[in-house]
């Protein structure tokens, strides 16, 4: 109790512990809004008391207890005779003795963190709401930060989205729990999807605030590590590997003008070898696991790219084989498109052309500019300039992303 | 918590699709929910041809022949259930045989404070 505590110490503790404290407070108080207020109150108290009294033996447990008492006080002071509040207070009194905020009980803290993750990513919430709530509650970003990172959404929309999600959790009684074993794989997939979308939001934007975009992707990777620690699973491992391997190429994928650079043309010496090593290790571990799935397979493909000295030296037949396997899990036309591109590199453009034409005829990707871009590229390689021009033009019409447009424009101009 | 599970389906197709539930299956499910103690009420409705929509404006009762809104799927019936939380309500809703051919909207009951 005699350690000197400064505001900086407390601020660092906030960074490190506030999400865990919040996760436990939500369970104890049964309400997101109340728990967030309680969290702020607890840290305000800490700022007043700790510099005088010293650091408590169990700071995290202290914060939970303090926050909880503040919340109970607040409800009591409101003095309303609402029936549900009376009942709530009675319940709080009943189990306040039962709750021992024991810092050494790691399982209990981790369970609360998992409860928070599964609740924020509950499939009864819209995907947009899941992402916003995850960033707000689990990552601790402010509404302003979230809005800035998502170019399309003004602050008010993000704020509304979060409020609506919290209201639904409360009013529809979305439970604050770790799903039962039989539900777990499906619910885990929903969490993985949120992490993946979050990463892509930060990775695929080339306009906008690059620092904030990098922060979004970093948050996604952090979430991946957290989830892997809390709920070990081969697909989580696969997803995390995929994110690390994609992240390793971040600085190589855009030139100084902010234009996209194709994988084949990237300066591979810019790829982050530390991230590649971490990613490859995870891929190898995930491939030995029992639940291999689409993320693990995509990570395996990314690992083959990452370990190749150049595009021509890449093991394309192996990549085609992995896409075949991936298609069994995810029978989507996008997988077929990627497979066709891999075939063009493994066997030449002539082998890929009929596959792409079949995809075009199916009409499933009629709004997807990358199919047109792939068709343009194949025609260009086959010397069919006129068709190539037609498809580049088609692709241009279908994307509104500026970096994509500049890229396609450049390719179009290179034809003449 | 009480939840109302509203069963919607295309009236014209509800009983004629390959996956359409037979009456016995619907009875059996209702009985199963009843036996689990979670059933508060459940009914099937007559088709929308029989619907009358009532509005009161400036003290006058106005009637319209037909449902409140013309939609692709119509309200065909409902379950009012008692469930621990939304997960349990979703589980009950997913078991309703008509969910295979229609949709079930799950709505928590709002507790009015008196």
Task: Give a short summary of the structure.
Chain A has 416 residues and is an all-alpha fold. Chain A has 19 helices and no strands.
Strands, helices and their partners?
The complex is a heterodimer of chains A (416) and B (114).
Chain A: H1 7-29, H2 32-53, H3 59-77, H4 83-96, H5 106-120, H6 127-138, H7 143-149, H8 155-171, H9 184-204, H10 210-230, H11 234-247, H12 273-287, H13 294-306, H14 316-329, H15 333-347, H16 349-362, H17 369-381, H18 385-398, H19 402-414
Chain B: E1 2-9, H1 23-35, E2 39-44, E3 52-57, E4 60-65, E5 74-82, H2 86-95, E6 103-108
Antiparallel strand pairs in B: 1-5, 1-6, 2-5, 3-4
Report on the architecture of this protein.
The complex is a heterodimer of chains A (416) and B (114). The mean pLDDT of chain A is 90. In chain A, helix 1 (7-29) packs across helix 3. Chain A has helices spanning 7-29, 32-53, 59-77, 83-96, 106-120, 127-138, 143-149, 155-171, 184-204, 210-230, 234-247, 273-287, 294-306, 316-329, 333-347, 349-362, 369-381, 385-398, 402-414. Chain A has a domain at 7-102. Chain A is elongated. Chain A is built from 19 helices and no strands. Chain A is mainly α and 416 residues long. Chain B is of the alpha+beta class. Chain B has a single domain (2-108), classed as Dimeric alpha+beta barrel (Alpha-Beta Plaits, 2-Layer Sandwich), CATH 3.30.70. Chain B is 20% helix and 36% strand. Chain B has 2 helices and 6 strands; from the N terminus they run E-H-E-E-E-E-H-E. Chain B has helices at 23-35, 86-95, and strands at 2-9, 39-44, 52-57, 60-65, 74-82, 103-108. In chain B, the strands form 2 sheets. Chain B has a 4-stranded antiparallel beta sheet, covered by helices on one side. A two-stranded antiparallel sheet of chain B has the order 3-4. The longest helix of chain B is centred in the first third of the chain and has 13 residues, at 23-35. The A-B interface holds A 82-84, 124, 171-175, 177, 179, 183 and B 1, 84-87, 90, 106, 108, 110-111, 113.
């Amino acid at each position: 109790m005699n350690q000197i505590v400064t505001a900086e110490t407390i601020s660092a503790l906030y960074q490190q512990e506030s999400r865990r404290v919040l996760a436990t407070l939500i369970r104890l108080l049964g309400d997101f809004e109340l728990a967030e207020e309680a969290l702020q109150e607890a840290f305000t108290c800490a700022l007043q008391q700790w510099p005088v009294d010293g650091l408590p033996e169990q700071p995290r447990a202290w914060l939970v207890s303090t926050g909880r008492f503040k919340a109970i006080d607040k409800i009591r002071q409101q003095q309303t005779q609402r029936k549900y509040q009376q009942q709530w207070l009675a319940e709080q009194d009943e189990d306040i003795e039962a709750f021992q905020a024991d810092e050494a009980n790691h399982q209990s803290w981790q369970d609360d963190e998992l409860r928070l993750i599964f609740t924020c990513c509950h499939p009864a919430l819209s995907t947009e709401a899941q992402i916003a709530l995850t960033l707000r509650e689990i990552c601790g970003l402010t509404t302003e930060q979230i809005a800035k990172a998502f170019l399309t959404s003004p602050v008010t929309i993000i704020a509304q989205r979060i409020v609506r999600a919290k209201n639904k959790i409360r009013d529809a009684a979305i439970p604050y729990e770790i799903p039962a074993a039989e539900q777990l794989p499906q619910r885990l997939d929903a969490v993985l999807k949120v992490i993946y979308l979050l990463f892509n939001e930060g990775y695929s934007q080339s306009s906008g605030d690059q620092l904030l975009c990098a922060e979004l992707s970093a948050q996604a990777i952090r979430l991946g590590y957290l989830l892997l620690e809390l709920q070990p699973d081969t697909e989580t491992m696969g997803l995390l590997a995929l994110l690390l391997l994609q992240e390793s190429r971040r600085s190589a994928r855009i030139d100084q003008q902010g234009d996209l650079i194709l994988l084949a043309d990237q300066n591979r010496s810019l790829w982050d070898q530390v991230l590649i090593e971490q990613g490859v290790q995870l891929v190898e571990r995930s491939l030995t696991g029992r639940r291999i799935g689409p993320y693990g397979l995509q990570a395996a493909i990314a690992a083959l790219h990452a370990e190749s000295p150049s595009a021509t030296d890449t093991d394309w037949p192996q990549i085609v084989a992995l896409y075949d396997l991936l298609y069994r899990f995810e029978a989507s036309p996008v997988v077929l498109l990627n497979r066709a591109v891999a075939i063009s590199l493994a066997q030449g453009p002539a082998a890929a052309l009929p596959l792409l034409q079949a995809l075009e005829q199916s009409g499933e990707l009629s709004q997807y500019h990358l199919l047109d871009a792939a068709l343009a590229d194949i025609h260009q390689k086959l010397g069919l300039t006129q068709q190539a021009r037609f498809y580049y033009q088609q692709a241009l019409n279908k994307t509104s992303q500026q970096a994509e447009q500049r890229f396609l424009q450049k390719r179009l101009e290179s034809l003449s | 918590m009480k939840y109302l599970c509203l069963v919607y389906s295309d009236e014209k197709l509800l009983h004629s699709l390959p996956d359409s539930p037979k009456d016995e299956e619907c009875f059996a499910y209702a009985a199963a929910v009843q036996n689990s103690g979670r059933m508060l009420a459940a009914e099937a409705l007559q088709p929308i041809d029989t619907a009358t929509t009532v509005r009161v404006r400036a003290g006058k009762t106005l009637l319209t022949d037909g449902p409140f809104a013309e939609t692709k799927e119509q309200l065909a019936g409902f379950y009012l259930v008692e469930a621990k939380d939304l997960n349990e309500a979703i589980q009950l809703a997913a078991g309703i045989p008509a969910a295979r051919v229609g949709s079930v909207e799950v709505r928590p009951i709002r507790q009015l404070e008196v």
